[in-house]
Specification:
196 residues; mainly alpha; 4 helices
Length: 196
């Protein structure tokens, strides 16, 4: 038995001794190549400082909105009354403009459906990945003996479980949004072919 141990020790020390000169030689080669590369550079690289940069003008900001203040002078009260009337006369013109709604054609309906389905698929995939992570962390927690390592694994496990709970809620919300969308499309009389 002693002979086997001493032979094993001999081979390990022989292999370790042979590897050291090989790595030193390759390190020396790398150093020589780097020195040659540095000598090949003719001029030093230009250093850019703040003085080399051009001044950037500040962005133009919108004028501040006019503020209305009430004071005791009659002139300012009359001016604020006129401003109020002018604001009221401008409101009907703005209200007359219809809000630009998107055209609800086939592209609109299929695009919305695709977006909702993509979000649901993304959340389900991520929930599956988090479940795999939780399973691995639980296995790791059971197999650890060191209390400090168990505490770290337990913290990571708790975070992963909280994330999985959040994702399950998001999946439920995604499914509800998808069902609400399908009901909205049904009430709007959208042809079923548009929702593919």
């Amino acid at each position: 038995m002693r002979i086997k141990i001493s032979a094993l020790f001999f081979f390990v020390s022989l292999a370790g001794g042979a590897a050291a000169p090989l790595s030193a030689q390759s390190l020396a080669d790398v150093a020589r190549q780097e020195e040659a590369r540095r000598q090949a550079i003719r001029a030093p690289a230009k250093v850019i400082t703040n003085t080399d940069l051009k001044e950037v003008p500040p962005p133009e900001s919108a004028p501040p909105p006019a503020t209305t203040t009430t004071s005791a002078t009659p002139d300012s009260a009359a001016a604020s009354e006129e401003a109020g009337k002018a604001g009221e006369s401008a409101k009907p013109a703005d209200a007359a403009k219809p809000a630009a709604e998107p055209v609800k054609d086939q592209a609109y309906w299929s695009g919305r459906l695709k977006g909702l389905q993509t979000q649901l698929d993304r959340d389900q995939t991520f929930a599956g990945a988090v479940q795999v992570q939780i399973d691995a962390l639980r296995t790791d927690f059971v197999n650890r003996d060191d209390p400090a390592q168990k505490a770290v694994v337990k913290g990571n496990l708790d975070k992963a479980v909280a994330e999985l709970d959040r994702l399950k809620k998001a999946i439920t919300d995604d499914q509800k949004a998808l069902a609400d969308f399908q009901e909205e499309a049904r009430q709007a009389g959208v042809p079923p072919g548009w929702l593919r």
